[in-house]
Design a protein that fits this description.
- It catalyses: Transfers a segment of a (1->4)-alpha-D-glucan to a new position in an acceptor, which may be glucose or a (1->4)-alpha-D-glucan.
- This is 4-alpha-glucanotransferase.
- It is found in: Cytoplasm.
- InterPro entries: GH, Glyco_hydro_77.
- Its EC number is 2.4.1.25.
- By secondary structure, this protein is an alpha/beta fold.
- The chain has a domain at about 355-500.
- The chain is about 40% helix and about 10% strand.
- Strands 16-8-5-2-1-19-18-17 form an eight-stranded parallel β-sheet. A four-stranded antiparallel β-sheet has the order 7-6-9-10, with no helix packed on it.
- A hairpin with a 2-residue loop joins strand 12 and strand 13.
- The longest helix is centred in the first third of the chain and has 27 residues, at about 165-195.
- It starts with 7 loop residues before the first helix and ends with a helix.
- The model is unreliable at about 1-5 and about 5-15 (pLDDT under 50).
Length: about 700
């Protein structure tokens, strides 16, 4: 698909041996068209591919398109929170393109599409509290999923029996039965019980439905069959439309690049039916970074890799097989998770009490040798003293003490029984509000979270007196700061050893056990998102396995300064100016006067003061730098490409940011402010991109 009809290597002989290509990144939900019912749909990928083919772009990179339906409202908008690693999201189905759709339903669906796309649909400005800006006609997730659910049910009532009896559906079911049957039952039970929290399903709850029992519950003629089979048919319709888009992309010489989320929702069919594959009492996330000072807590259970390895990672291989039906390449979200994962206890809400799993811990013997093992409660328990309380809560601190803490004597305070976790404290504050006069509950909860996280070392679950882990960024805690200087020095040495020394070969060996099984599962091109706290061993493993790493100019590798230099990127990489977890180039330019000045003078090599706004020329300079990079792939968020044309650039670039990582419950609702139909008519814009691609080889 990549090389088809590609004559660039004849025009530019330099690139005959090292092929390079460019593409766009855009979430399906963000595509805007007249035919999409208030949201982007799988069939919107066809005009997207047309634009790319005309512009000589070879890749359309997407965010995950798997089903996330737990609540049937905007809480399900987070595309990385899959309730099934196989099932496609019904929100991307085009109702009007369902084969055999009855005419009355088609007419009503067309009318609803016009209503949801009407410029006057939103009666007032839509404000995003995380981004602190107004959004431009975003996705109204709840309204869209409610409308589509209604039309899908009506269509199934009318033609479902005919579909179930068709040879085409039966062939689809035969290939997908291993995941489709439990998925359909899971969805039926979710709606029956009114919750996806499968621990609350009694005799049908987590891990309690055998394959035999499932066969009985979902067999034709069973009481549940008609309702379960609805979800099977919806998946068939979604499959037809994404497959059509995928096949069309191949015909046009463009590849679809999918996204493989590192996590699976705790309330998912996978965790319900096969809980032995997961550590259900843990949560996964990421350590603190420049974009999330408290770390990230995604709430997903961590993987039980030891169990998964027993059948050569069959769960993962099946997952990749499903993706390969539609995608020609894929991005492994947080590929560092295959080396080690940031794991928190289930009682945590932030990422500060995490530790890497697996990892080689600090031992009691090490601590004793350093003279640190004599008072473990001081290092491992929340360090709470009256002066810390006063600093956090002001003169009314004693009211917080009376509600949440006990006096342990000697000026030491500790949490009351049962109130030692972030989850427990949040439940109380949500229920009772703030005990501080004139203070919002959020202020109280933030202070309590600081206290919970005010530790220096974390105990191992299984050997709490023998093995320990340094708390991430422990030097920022009052507990660490009030230790004697010599103890601080010794703890810093152990911290450095744990995070940046002893683990490298251990983690490399683990990754080499897992990643080859994924790569052998399909013929898709493999890319890895290797950002964050990167172990030294990662680059060597990715090179050995021929996996392309990710290079983002604003997230340079250590030692590269404040910006990555595109001309130094290795060929085995994907370069991009921004991604969904950060502002666009234009949005960033508006936010960071000092940094934009440095980029202007040192990276773009322009004299004088940087312009206050990111104009078309600046956006073009950034794009050109990435196109001329040695990287195999240069991928551009569609927002960054449109910024090269003043007619297409968003006047409020801050609203073009898709996600806000510090908030795991952020509402993902970005939608392109220009329709695909309009974009296709901008032939000079498309020609400009084509020229830039051809000039850079």
């Amino acid at each position: 698909a990549l090389v088809q009809n590609d004559d660039l290597s004849d025009t530019y002989p330099l690139y005959k041996t090292e092929w390079r290509g460019a593409g766009i990144a855009v979430p399906v939900f963000g595509l805007r068209s007249e035919a999409g019912m208030g949201v982007g749909e799988f069939l919107d990928l066809r005009p997207t591919v047309d634009i790319c083919a005309k512009a000589k772009l070879k890749v359309v990179q997407l965010l995950p398109v798997t089903d996330t339906t737990s609540w049937h409202d905007e809480r399900d908008s987070y595309p990385y929170s899959s309730i099934s690693v196989h099932a496609l999201h019904p929100i991307y189905i085009r109702i009007g393109a369902i084969p055999g759709l009855p005419a009355p339903i088609r007419a009503e669906a067309d009318a609803e599409t016009k209503r949801l796309n009407d410029p006057g649909y939103f009666k007032k400005a839509v404000w995003d509290e995380d981004l602190k800006t107004e959004l431009v006609r975003p996705v109204d997730y709840t309204a869209v999923i409610t409308a589509k659910d209604k039309f899908l049910h009506r269509t199934y009532d009318e033609i479902g029996s005919k579909v179930l009896a068709s040879a085409e559906f039966q062939a689809f079911f035969a290939e997908a039965e291993s995941w489709l049957r439990p998925y359909g039952l899971f969805c039926w039970l979710r709606d029956f019980f009114g919750t996806a929290i499968h621990e609350d399903w009694g005799a049908l709850g987590t891990g309690r439905v055998s394959k035999e029992k499932m066969g009985q519950l979902t067999a034709p003629g069973s009481e549940l069959y008609r309702g379960v089979a609805y979800h099977w048919v919806v998946q068939y319709w979604a499959h037809l439309q994404l497959k059509e888009a995928s096949d069309y992309a191949v015909q046009q010489g463009v590849m679809l690049k999918g996204d493989l989320p590192i996590g699976v929702d705790h309330d998912s069919v996978d965790a319900w039916f096969e809980p032995h594959l997961f550590h259900m009492d843990k949560k996964t996330g990421a350590p603190p970074d420049d974009y999330a000072e408290y770390g990230q807590n995604w709430g997903f259970p961590t993987y039980n890799w030891e169990v998964m390895a027993q059948d050569n990672f069959a769960w993962w291989r099946a997952r990749l097989h499903s993706m390969s039906r539609y995608f020609h390449a894929f991005r492994i979200d947080h590929i560092l998770g295959f080396f080690r994962i940031w794991e928190m206890p289930a009682a945590a809400t932030t990422g500060l009490l995490g530790r890497f799993r697996p990892s080689l811990p600090l031992t009691r013997e090490e601590l004793n040798r350093e003279g640190l093992g004599h008072d473990m409660p001081r290092l491992c328990s929340p360090y709470i003293r009256p002066h810390i309380m006063q600093r956090l809560f002001g003169g009314e601190w004693f009211k917080v003490k009376d509600r949440f803490l006990d006096d342990a004597g000697g000026g030491i305070l500790r949490f009351k029984d049962g109130l030692w976790s972030e989850v427990a404290l949040k439940a109380i504050v949500d229920r009772e509000g703030s005990c501080l006069p004139y203070q919002e509950p959020k202020v109280l909860l933030t202070g309590l979270s600081v206290l919970v996280n005010n530790v220096v070392l974390l105990r191992d679950d299984k050997e709490p007196e023998a093995k320990f882990y340094p708390r991430i960024e422990m030097w920022k805690t009052a507990s660490f700061q009030e230790l004697p200087g010599d103890m601080q020095h010794r703890l810093r040495g152990l911290y450095q050893s744990y995070f940046y020394g002893r683990q490298d070969q251990f983690w490399a060996d683990l990754a080499m056990q897992k990643l080859p099984a994924l790569m052998d599962a399909s013929e898709m091109v493999v890319c890895g998102e290797d950002l964050g706290m990167i172990p030294a061993c990662v680059a060597g493993v990715l090179d050995k396995l021929v996996i392309m790493g990710l290079k983002i100019q604003r997230m340079p590798a250590p030692g590269q300064g404040k910006f990555g230099r595109c001309n130094t990127y290795p060929h085995l990489s994907v370069c991009t100016p921004s991604c969904h977890d950060m502002s666009t180039v234009a949005g960033w330019w508006d936010e960071n006067k000092q940094l934009r000045q440095e980029l202007w003078n040192t990276i773009l090599q322009r004299p004088g003061e940087a312009p206050a706004r990111c104009n078309a020329d600046i956006a073009s300079m950034v794009v050109k730098q990435h196109l001329w990079s040695p990287s195999c792939l240069a991928i551009f968020p569609i927002q960054d490409l449109m910024a090269m044309d003043d007619r297409l650039a968003n006047r409020n670039p801050r609203s073009d940011q898709i996600n806000w990582p510090p908030n795991p419950k952020h509402y993902w609702r970005w939608r392109c402010h220009i329709t695909l139909d309009e974009l296709q008519k901008k032939t000079d814009f498309i020609s400009n991109i084509r020229s830039l691609v051809e000039q850079s080889g």
